[in-house]
Amino acid sequence: MKAAVFRNEDGDEEEEEEEVCNVFDGGEVESKRNNETKNLKGFFTSLLLMEEHEKQDQEARNAASRREMSDFQSNYRKRARTMSDYYSDLNDYYADAEESGDINLKKSRVSRAVASVAVAASEIEAESSEITGSGSVRGTGSGQQRRLWVKDRSRAWWEECSRLDYPEEDFKKAFRMSKSTFELICDELNSAVAKEDTALRNAIPVRQRVAVCIWRLATGEPLRLVSKKFGLGISTCHKLVLEVCKAIKDVLMPKYLQWPDDESLRNIRERFESISGIPNVVGSMYTTHIPIIAPKISVAAYFNKRHTERNQKTSYSITIQAVVNPKGVFTDLCIGWPGSMPDDQVLEKSLLYQRANNGGLLKGMWVAGGPGHPLLDWVLVPYTQQNLTWTQHAFNEKMSEVQRVAKEAFGRLKGRWACLQKRTEVKLQDLPTVLGACCVLHNICEMREEKMDPELMVEVIDDEVLPENALRSVNAMKARDTISHNLLHHGLAGTSFL
């Protein structure tokens, strides 16, 4: 520092020293500032690097979280579907087994299990819907919408049948009626069975609802096969059958199954007289039995002793009593009485009996019954005693022709609706509705002259038991004798009894 000082006059030396000091101090300050700047740059660089590393770590954690959530969601959906498929198959198994045994308890367990699976699946869907695309657990209002998972089933067969160019013969073979009759029934039932779409699923169309019911009645196939044919759940098919049958009973029965008016009765009398020669017959009455599974209560009342003895197999049944016109159309029905009741007791329980005895419905007219019915003022039956005379033989022969009308009508009923030929899983309290629907559909087909395949015709065999009090009207006995005499002596009896 001293070498830098210049000695001049009057204190110049000090000034120079001061200058040099100032210069030295300024350089030191500048050096300090440069060092501070470098330190700051290094500090900020470190902060940026730390932020970058932290950002990369956060993205890695988010990606891992998203993968974890996706695996969690996928795993639980697979488990829910597996459980649902398992219980669906189990439900199918019990639906088949239901026709041959007591499975109400097992079925209730399966129903509870299926309901639990459905709740679990809904909870899983709700939880997964809250997961957003960024991998966060809670959504922000734009998350996935909750939906109802439904098992995928094929509807190819029904879609094929629904085509306009589907062959008429194939359609009639499947549904026992023509396309035009089927469309008529759908139009009549539209307001009663139609449902509205919901947020979870679209409603089943009316045509498909009616088709499920008619195909089930026509084939009598188990519900699991109905489910596969129409691509619907087993419980859904069972529900549809009952709903449509009830609609048929409520909407169509008053229109297509009713007692004839006076003009119709006059035509019916003329037609029956041309068939048998017996005057004033307005209907042919017959009682048939429909097999059922042994009920839980009053099992003895439904035990059918006659069918059991003939078939060598324990049988239970309920009855259908019907009055039939010459065209095979039912004009009166009485459904649901236990199979142990003989025909005369079923008749006494019917509304027709009350109307005829107390209301004078059939005054001056006959309903032709069978050997199991009693002879009444309005019920005409064949002779049942031993050693018949020629006159009585002639009468019985003509009565059998009238009875054949009713038997053939029941043969077409059971042939057209095969569900009546086998024991059904329908509950006993619902069975009259199903049977009534079959009878109404039979009437519609008969009125529209739907031809039935002769191979489907069923021979009706019901062992009739003679009533304890077969002759209950003296006037009817005299009238029957007069009719028998006229048939023989006016050449109307034929000669097959000779």
TrEMBL record:
Can you quote a single GO CC term? nucleus
Residue ranges constituting the DDE Tnp4 domain according to the UniProt record: 286-443
Top-rank lineage group of the source organism: Eukaryota
Which keywords does this chain's UniProt record carry? Hydrolase, Metal-binding, Nuclease, Nucleus
Tell me where it mainly resides: nucleus
Recorded GO MF terms: hydrolase activity; metal ion binding; nuclease activity
Q: What is this protein called?
A: DDE Tnp4 domain-containing protein
Cofactor(s) listed in the protein's UniProt record: a divalent metal cation
Q: Which family does it belong to?
A: Belongs to the HARBI1 family.
